[in-house]
Structure formats: structure tokens, C-alpha cells
Specification:
It is a single chain. With 116 residues, this protein is mainly β. 0% of the residues lie in helices and 49% in strands. The chain has no helices and ten strands. Strand 7 and strand 8 form a beta hairpin. The protein is globular, with a radius of gyration of 13 Å.
Length: 116
């Protein structure tokens, strides 16, 4: 069973940047697509970005397109999310998981708070 640990969140001012990291253990992720998701208070979890197994294919939610970049390092079993030009509406707990079908369980996520 793959376990995922997200890190890198924090408090940042609007316009700032953060880099999130997701580390996988207990199994391989090198042959599957992975994604980042987020859940804001009182809202459902939503898709943010995905990357295919070799990093050649990426997709983004319209709300983050042009500001966020997803990448992966299969040797290190990590998936990253570079977030630039952050906005208050990006405030949420961010999670990584298999895309499009999750592993059936989620990590604790990492909190991102963007102040105006």
C-alpha cells in the first residue's frame, strides 16, 4: 500500500510562492499518473494538477493554469507542485494522490494559507 506524505505548505502573502512536495513510500509510483488536489474550508476537494508517469503530460485546473507547475522525480519517488503568484483563494489543504483514481486513502495534506 502506497503511503503519501505532503510537505512544504505555510503562510505566504499574496503574490508569493511556495513549493510543495509529496513523498511516496511502501510502493512504486513510477508507472502511474499522479495529481495534486486541494480542499478549502467548507468546500469539497478539487483537482489542481496532474502529471503522467514520465512527466511528459501535465494538466491543470483553469484556476491555477499559468501559475502552478507540477513535476515528478521517479527516482526519488516524489511529486512536486511549484506555486507562484499565489492568491488568497488558493488557501486550502493540499494533497497528492494517484490520478485520476486515488489510492483509496489520503495523506494528512499540507496547509497553504495566502494572506491578502
Amino acid at each position: 500500500q502506497v503511503q503519501l506524505v505532503e510537505s512544504g505548505g505555510g503562510l505566504v502573502q499574496a503574490g508569493g510562492s511556495l513549493r510543495l512536495s509529496c513523498a511516496a513510500s511502501g510502493g512504486t509510483i513510477s508507472r502511474i499518473s499522479m495529481g495534486w488536489f486541494r480542499q478549502a474550508p467548507g468546500k469539497e476537494r478539487e483537482f489542481v494538477a496532474s502529471v503522467n508517469w514520465n512527466g511528459a503530460g501535465r494538466s491543470y485546473a483553469d484556476s491555477v493554469k499559468g501559475r502552478f507547475i507540477i513535476s515528478r522525480d521517479n527516482a526519488k519517488k516524489t511529486v512536486s507542485l511549484q506555486m507562484n503568484s499565489l492568491k488568497p483563494e488558493d488557501t486550502a489543504v493540499y494533497y497528492c494522490n494517484r490520478f485520476p483514481t486515488d489510492f483509496g486513502s489520503w495523506g494528512q495534506g499540507t496547509q497553504v494559507t495566502v494572506s491578502s
